């Protein structure tokens, strides 16, 4: 999105004000003021059961106890919450302090949190956060209103850039911590580059370290994984000798980017690494929203919302019985 000067060139309060205006005017306008809709779904509180409807109901919602007692298939029903409880886990570690386009990944993460926050405030809805920083996890209790949201965003904006970690907390542990801290069903949003917990070149066996905790989280809550990337993580430019530094470990390596073979190997490894992230999020049962520092993040969010709505409509459309005409 082109909003004039990059938000990192503005003072913190002006950055927050600009974010709020962008979200409430452009994003909310494009979504026609609907209730965020990043993840359409059912309510969260059990309300009983009813007979199973083939083609409309998901098998995973079967109420096996009632089905066994009545010998008729039943599914669990739920009442939608009057108030939405949303929690965000935001990766603010050193790997997020990188950007070669209009934004740094950290700024894009703040924008994603702002989108979730500003569009869910009001009506008694609550928003809480766990911020994964170089000093550990900072917890913001779920509260109602705009003021707590602005305080959370200020904390994210004020976190020191590329700070050396004093407490090493893997993303997997941070996800588990969020799951333990929030027992009541709600919407969980994990904002990260998801590079933590991957094999160094994306080639190793097994799932990412964070996949199992993310699956456990998705087993109880609706989960949206917001992946923040930068184009230079996918390909190396031809700029001669380039010094690469791992912001998490501080390891430094010089590479000769003039080598086409090296650039090709890098791009192939980056593609495999990205596929590992995509597959891990999908296997965990979370929705996946990809944002990039060189793309219009507002447009990406809108596309995601409408794609989710199409999926929801398709899941509830009655199936044509075998042999019947369409």
Q: Report the β-strand fraction as a percent range.
A: 15-25%
Helix % is 25-40%
Uncertain spans, ≥5 residues at pLDDT below 50?
Answer: 1-7, 42-46, 201-205, 319-326
| Total DSSP helices | 8
Oligomerization status of the protein chains: single chain
Number of strands: 10
Radius of gyration: 22 Å
Biggest sheet overview: 6 strands, mixed
Along the chain, the helix and strand elements come as HEHEEHEEHHEHEEEHEH
The span between the termini is 42 Å
Structure description:
The chain has 326 residues and is α/β, with parallel strands linked by helices. It has eight helices and ten strands. The strands form three sheets. The protein has a six-stranded mixed sheet, sandwiched between helices. Strands 1-2 form a two-stranded antiparallel sheet. α6 (211-220) runs parallel beside α7. Residues 1-7, 42-46, 201-205 and 319-326 have low confidence and may be disordered.
Set down the secondary structure blueprint.
Blueprint: H1 12-30, E1 45-51, H2 64-70, E2 74-79, E3 85-91, H3 105-120, E4 126-133, E5 136-144, H4 146-158, H5 171-181, E6 187-192, H6 211-220, E7 222-229, E8 241-245, E9 252-256, H7 260-284, E10 287-292, H8 297-316
Parallel strand pairs: 3-4, 3-6, 6-7, 7-10
Antiparallel strand pairs: 1-2, 4-5, 8-9
């Amino acid at each position: 999105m082109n909003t004039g000067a990059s938000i990192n060139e503005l003072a913190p309060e002006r950055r927050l004000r600009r974010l709020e205006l962008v979200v409430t005017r452009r994003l909310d306008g494009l979504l026609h003021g609907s209730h965020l809709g990043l993840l359409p779904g059912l309510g969260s509180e059990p309300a009983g059961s009813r007979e199973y409807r083939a083609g409309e109901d998901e098998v995973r919602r079967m109420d096996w106890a009632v089905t066994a007692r009545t010998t008729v298939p039943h599914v669990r029903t739920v009442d939608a919450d009057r108030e939405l409880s949303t929690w965000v886990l935001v990766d603010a570690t050193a790997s997020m302090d990188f950007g070669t386009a209009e934004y740094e990944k950290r700024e894009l993460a703040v924008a994603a949190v702002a989108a979730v926050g500003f569009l869910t405030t009001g009506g008694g809805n609550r928003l809480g956060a766990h911020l994964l920083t170089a000093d550990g996890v900072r917890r913001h209790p779920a509260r109602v209103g705009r003021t707590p949201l602005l305080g959370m965003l200020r904390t994210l904006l004020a976190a020191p850039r590329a700070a050396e970690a004093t407490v090493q907390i893997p993303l997997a542990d941070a996800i588990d911590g969020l799951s333990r801290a929030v027992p009541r069903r709600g919407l969980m949003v994990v904002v990260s580059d998801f590079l933590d917990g991957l094999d160094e070149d994306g080639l190793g066996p097994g799932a990412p370290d964070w996949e199992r905790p993310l699956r456990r989280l998705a087993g109880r809550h609706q989960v949206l994984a917001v992946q923040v990337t930068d184009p230079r993580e996918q390909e190396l430019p031809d700029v001669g000798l380039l010094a690469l530094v791992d912001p998490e470990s501080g390891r430094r390596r010089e590479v000769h980017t003039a080598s086409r073979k090296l650039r090709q190997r890098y791009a192939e490894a980056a593609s495999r690494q990205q596929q590992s992230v995509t597959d891990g999020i999908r296997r965990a049962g979370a929705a996946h929203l990809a944002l990039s520092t060189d793309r219009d993040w507002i447009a990406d969010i809108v596309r995601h919302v409408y794609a989710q709505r199409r999926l929801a409509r398709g899941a509830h459309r009655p199936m044509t019985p075998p042999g019947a005409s369409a």
